[in-house]
TrEMBL record:
Cofactor (UniProt): Ca(2+); Zn(2+)
Designated name of the protein: Matrix metalloproteinase-16
Domain of life of the organism encoding this protein: Eukaryota
Binding site for Zn(2+) 2: H99, H103, H109, M117
GO cellular component: extracellular matrix; extracellular space
Low complexity: bias regions: 162-175
Pfam families xref list: Hemopexin, Peptidase_M10
Binding site for Ca(2+) 5: I251, A346
First and last residues of every Hemopexin repeat: 241-289, 293-338, 340-387, 388-435
Key words of the record: Calcium, Disulfide bond, Hydrolase, Metal-binding, Metalloprotease, Protease, Repeat, Signal, Zinc, Zymogen
Length: 500
């Protein structure tokens, strides 16, 4: 590369930033056994995480480990600049390199917007003195430069990486078995006895009546029954949700129509508005969903026009209304953690047309080509400023904009500013169901509910203006978060690197 001398100087400077605040030392080696290998590549370059050309994804790095662990890859299609103070339409290579080497050393992303490890690129000049958040993180792993340690001999990297055995487990779907209703407590209709009177013109023959008198005998009285079994409870019929006063479990564009899910019901909205006869049972359209499900957690239509439902710990893929063979599959087959019990929302972000999954305080990006979440996830939901945690639903509308839902309200998201377009949510029923405004309805600007997270116990507490509190803008945007990144294993401090 013609910029090789500038690249080498920038890489050396980027590594020195991390060495300045820790006990790390770096040296360049001309060997493929380096701990950190640097690669410039275009498009698909063999690691399963292809680049997308100028803009968007600038680089990626792998956490420490054998093989490609610790390596950093940069998109060769990007327009880089290597000189301090240079601006314009090019990208600051030094700033990106410091960030990626942070991943190579074992650091995750930070929610501090001033940190080097903040996930979004900002064209700030890199200082040799790390921001406090990054400095604390690197010293947590490798210690402070001014702190003395006992004698420690760093391990050498093995010339032959250890072999690993991967076992693939295939889970087959258990066949559904249906049992007839056992009506043991209901008598059958008695069978009629012979002869049958099937001739309507035949008259019954009248026989003379006789009266027989029997002598009365005194018999002992029978005991009186004082206890009766309680009546069996009847299963209540599920009530349809109120179209103009309900929350949404999931919402998505499917075949260019809006589908809104609540409990076991759904609404369907086309070009001419809400279809008549809705809400109706979700099973009427997707009969192969589980019979006993209580709600749809999330749903979206992928790039292959397959419809993906998330219910509990499993997801279902449908081709129109037919379940695709091999499904359902557990969430863990997507690379999600075993501890995850459900997905809050699944949506395609209009900014980059990539698929995102959210649950609680975290979100993941799903690679539709590999069918697994990407390497550098999960991340904290605070990146989506103004949305908060534990959202109910999200989807990309036909106008390309992304909308988030919580409670009875929704936010439109500003992709360029990475924050909500309006700090107060608007009423969902008015926008999506076209419900009329009630005479005594409180203005939607006053129905905002502010989520706060307690610093002491991280418990979500909700405050509403309806309780008499007066909220200003700063209070509404107040979110306290605590983030702790732990690495359970020690990494050696004498790290070598090379360029490829």
């Amino acid at each position: 590369m013609e910029d090789a001398p500038q690249i080498r100087r920038a890489l050396t400077e980027a590594l020195s930033v991390w060495a300045h605040s820790s006990k790390l030392t770096f040296r360049e080696v001309r060997s493929d056994q380096a701990d950190i290998q640097v690669l410039f590549a275009r498009g698909d370059h063999g690691d399963g995480y292809k680049f997308d050309g100028p803009g968007m994804v600038l680089a990626h790095a792998f956490y420490p480990g054998v093989g490609r662990g610790g390596d950093a890859h940069f998109d060769a299609d990007e327009k880089w600049h290597f000189t301090r103070g240079e601006r314009g339409d090019s990208t600051n290579f030094l700033g990106v390199a410091v960030h990626e080497f942070g991943h190579s050393l074992g650091l995750g992303h930070s929610s501090d917007q001033n940190a080097i490890m903040y996930p979004w690129y900002h064209d700030n000049e890199v200082d040799i003195n790390l921001p406090a958040d990054d400095r604390n993180a690197i010293q947590q792993l490798y210690g402070s430069k001014d702190k003395t340690w006992g004698p420690f001999k760093p391990p050498t990297r093995p010339k032959t990486p250890p072999t690993t055995t991967t076992t693939t487990t295939t889970t087959t779907r258990r066949p559904l078995v249906y049992y007839p209703q056992n009506r043991h407590n209901e008598p059958y209709d008695p069978r009629r006895r012979y002869p049958y009177n099937n001739n309507p013109h035949q008259r019954d023959r009248k026989l003379p009546t006789t009266t027989t008198y029997r002598p009365r005998t005194d018999s002992p009285p029978h005991p009186t029954r004082t206890w009766y079994p309680p009546p069996q409870p009847t299963k209540p019929k599920k009530l349809k949700p109120d179209t103009c006063h309900t929350t949404y479990d999931a919402i998505s564009i499917i075949r260019r129509e809006i589908f809104i899910f609540r409990g076991q019901f759904l609404w369907r909205i086309g070009d001419h508005g809400l279809y008549p006869g809705y809400p109706t049972y979700t099973h009427r359209l997707w009969a192969e969903l589980p019979k006993n499900f209580s709600k749809v957690d999330a749903v979206y239509e992928n790039k292959d026009r397959k419809i993906v439902f998330f219910i509990g710990r499993y997801y279902y893929v449908f081709d129109s209304v037919t379940l695709v063979s091999g499904y359902p599959q557990p969430l863990t087959s997507l690379g999600l953690p075993q501890s995850l019990t459900h997905i809050d929302a699944a949506f395609v972000w209009g900014y980059n047309n990539r698929t995102y999954l959210t649950s609680g305080t975290l979100y993941w990006r799903l690679d539709e080509d590999t069918g697994r979440v990407e390497l550098d996830y999960p991340r904290d939901m605070s990146i989506w400023r103004g949305i908060g945690y534990n959202i109910d639903a999200a989807f990309k509308y036909t106008n390309g904009k992304t909308y988030f839902f919580k409670g009875y309200g929704y936010w439109e998201f500003n992709d360029d500013l990475m924050e909500v377009a309006h700090p107060r949510p608007k009423l969902s029923a008015r926008k999506w169901m076209h419900c009329p405004r009630l005479v005594n309805e409180v203005d939607e600007e006053q129905t905002w509910t502010a989520p706060l997270i307690s610093e002491r116990n991280e418990t979500m507490v909700y405050y509403s203006p309806s309780s008499g509190a007066s909220w200003n803008y700063a209070q509404r945007r107040m979110v306290f978060w605590i983030s702790l990144f732990l690495i359970s294993h020690r990494l050696w401090t004498n790290i070598s690197w090379t360029t490829v």
